[in-house]
Amino acid sequence: MLELDRVTAGYDRGVPVVADLSLAVGEGEAVGLLGPSGCGKSTLARVAALLHRPWAGTVRLAGEPVTGFRFRAPRAERTRVGVVFQQPRLAADPRLTLGDLIAEPARATGRGAELADRAARLADDIGLTPALLGRRPHEVSDGQLQRACLARALLLRPGLLICDEMTAMLDASTTAALAAVVEEYRREHGAALLAVGHDRVLLRRWCDRVLDFPTGR
Ligand SMILES: Nc1ncnc2c1ncn2[C@@H]1O[C@H](COP(=O)(O)OP(=O)(O)OP(=O)(O)O)[C@@H](O)[C@H]1O
Question: Which residues cross the membrane (predicted)?
């Protein structure tokens, strides 16, 4: 589902954060990527989610080389991947209600009316009441907002879900609830998962394979 082939990426010229790294996630497979803070896990996750253009190397989704990153990523490629980040407040438009936030990918692809029922079902499955769906991010807890971000990531039924420290800020019961939603989604749709984090126990529980982020360049 996802192949990173000799990917090098970074921010400051000549100082790669990820160097010559290759990684594959099979169809329906769950892979955990483990590493300490600052090692480059999020950078790699953003490359895999087509949100950061690598300096070198190839990214393939379902066998097809990705042709563009960020705003240059074609919609058909972008919508194959769902992403959830560590900090929901940085990933949510503060002007939107939680209901509109979940429906955002549908509206952006001109499918708002078609997917309205699906969005409502997802919100219900993920534990968001109609009252919460009418609130804006500043009126809900981090856990409630992260639930909405996960629902948003699943709305277009991506074949690959990328979770970048999705539960790092959450309590045990919200963590368990979100993990259960991801597992159910994967069971139902056969989706692959790339979970990035620093908690080996959590990643082991979630994933078929857990890899250590390489420390060498
Ligand atoms: N936008 C940016 N501009 C410049 N440097 C950055 C940027 N984002 C990250 N970095 C640097 O790249 C390196 C890797 O960061 P990254 O966020 O990928 O690490 P991480 O392993 O996900 O860390 P954490 O677990 O703390 O989130 C760090 O040294 C960081 O300072």
Answer: none
